[in-house]
Amino acid sequence: MDKMTVKDIDLKGKRVLMRVDFNVPMEGGKVTDDKRIKAALPTIKYVLEQGASLVLMSHLGRPKGGFDPEFSLKAAAEVLSGHLGIPVQMAPDCVGPEVEKMAKALKPGDVLMLENTRFHPEEEKNDVGLAKKMAVLGDVYVNDAFGSAHRAHSSTEAVAHLLPAVSGFLMEKELEYLGKATSNPEHPYIAILGGAKISDKILVVENLLSKCDRLIIGGGMANTFLVAKGLNMQDSLVEAGSVDTAKAILAKSGSRIILPVDAVIADKFEAEANSKTVEIDKIPAGWRMMDVGPKTLELYKTTLKGAKLIVWNGPVGVFEMPKFAEGTFALAKLLAESGATTVIGGGDSASAVKKAGVAKQMTFVSTGGGASLEFLEGKELPGVAALLNKK
Length: 391
Ligand code: AMP
What we know:
Blueprint: E1 15-19, E2 26-27, E3 30-31, H1 35-49, E4 53-57, H2 74-84, E5 89-90, H3 97-104, E6 111-113, H4 128-135, E7 140-143, E8 165-167, H5 169-182, E9 189-193, H6 202-209, E10 214-217, H7 219-228, H8 243-253, E11 257-258, E12 262-266, E13 275-279, E14 288-292, H9 294-304, E15 309-313, H10 326-336, E16 341-344, H11 347-355, E17 364-365, H12 370-376, H13 382-385
Parallel strand pairs: 1-4, 1-7, 4-6, 5-6, 7-8, 9-10, 9-15, 10-11, 15-16, 16-17
Antiparallel strand pairs: 2-3, 12-13, 12-14
Bound molecules: adenosine monophosphate.
Adenosine monophosphate binds next to helix 7, strand 14 and helix 11.
C-alpha cells in the first residue's frame, strides 16, 4: 500500500515533527560523515518552503540512558545549519516543558533539533507515554528515517498513531526502490546476496527466490551452500547449523542459484595472508575462501547480461582486506555497466559501491542496513506500517 507523503498534506503554518536518521558517525565531538544529514535535506527544505516550522528528532548511537554529551545531536544540528544556511536551535532534551516552550515559540521557517531520543530508555520500549510527550511538539508527523523504520520505537511507531503521519521524500524513495525488489519486479530480475552468514539472511534468500529469476550467492554465505552440495570448503567460514537449510533451498531452487566456481583463498584470515586462486573444489587443507575468482566473475557477467533489475545486498568477499576486495569491486562495476535498474540494499554493499567509485552510477543505494534487510525479507516495517495510506 502506498503511503501518504509530505506532498499529500497541507503544511502551511503547521509545526512539523519530523523523525530523521541523524545517527551519524562521530569522532572527537565532530560528525565524520554527513551523508545521512544530506539525505534528509530535500524533505527538510520542502517542509520549510511550505511555510511550516520544523521540529527534528533522531537517535544517535547507544547511550546508556540520561543525557550524555558524547551522544548529543548538537554537532549534527550544526552541520545541518551549515547545509541550510540558517540557524538550527538545539533543545536540551527531546521532551518536557522547556522543549515544549521552544517548539511553541517557533515561527514558519524556524528549525529546532531535539536531543537524542535514546536519552530516554522508554524510547526503545515504544512507550506511548513518551510518544505523547513527543506528539505535543508538532501538528503533523513526518517520518524520513528509513534506517530506523524496522524498529518499533516511540519516535518511529507509537508517535505516528498520535498525529497525522506521512512519509518524507527519502522514506518514499526507499520504499519505491526497495519495493521494486519485492513487488512486481521487472524481469529478467537478478538478485545478488553476499555477506558473512547465511543464518542472518535465510528469510531474504527465500523471499527473493520467490520473486527473482536468478539468485547469485557469494561471500561467506556461499560456503554453506557449497558444503550442502558436498564440497570440502576446508577452513572457510561455514555455518554447520545451516547446512540442512541450504540443502533444502538447493533442492527446491538449485537451478536458479548461482554459486562460486572458483575462489581466491588464504592461508590465514588476515589482510597479509598468502593467497592464491583455485577451482572451488580444490581448496587445500588449512586454506579458506576469501573472495570469488575470475571464472566466477565471468559467470556473473553472463548472468547479469540483459537483466532489467538487479538487487544486491552483501559483499562477495572479505572486501575490507584489499587482497580480497577484487571480486566485490568487479561486481560493483558490472552493475554500473549493466544498463539495468540497480538497487543496492544498504550496509556493506553501499560502502562497496562507494569504494569501487561507482555509487553514482547505481539507480538507488539504500541508506538503511538492517531496515533494508528486513524489507527484503518481505516484512512490513513498523515505522512504515504506522504511516497513513494513500486513499
Ligand atoms: P553481512 O553483514 O552479513 O553483509 O556480512 C558482511 C561481511 O561478510 C563483510 O565484513 C565481509 O568481510 C564478510 N565476508 C564476505 N565474504 C566472506 C568470506 N568468504 N568469508 C568470510 N567473511 C566474508
